[in-house]
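Q: My labmate handed me this sequence with no annotations at all. I'd like to see what the chain might look like in three dimensions before we decide whether it's worth expressing. Could you predict it?
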Amino acid sequence: MRHTKGNGVQFSDCLKGITMHEQTSNIEKRRSLRLDMEKELIGLEWQCEDGKIIKRQAMCIDVSNGGLKVNIDRPIITNQPVKVTFRDKLGASNQFYARVLRETEVHDWYDVAMLFVEQGEDK
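A: Here is what I predict for the chain of 123 residues:
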C-alpha cells in the first residue's frame, strides 16, 4: 500500500511493526494516513552552515504522509534540509527527506515540524 501526498512524496507501509490508522472526519478534519509513533526514537541528520554534519536522535511526536513533528534537544533552523531515519522493531531502517517548517522551544527542548520532500527538493 502506497500513499501519495500532493507534493509527490510517497510514504509507504514499509515501517513494519508500526500501527497505522485512518482518522475519520468525525474525529479530526485531516483525511490523511497517520502513523502511531508517539514517543518512538528516530534518527535525524542535517548539515550546519559551517559544513558540520549533525546527527541526533529525536522523539517522534506525530507522523503523517505529509510530514512529522519531533522533540529534540537543540533547534533546527527553518527551511533546513533534514534526513530522517525510521527503524522498525527488527532493526531495518528507511530514510526520508524533510524540510523544517518551524521550531518552538518548550522547556529547553524544541518541537520541530517538518514537511516530507523528494530527495533533491530539500536544498
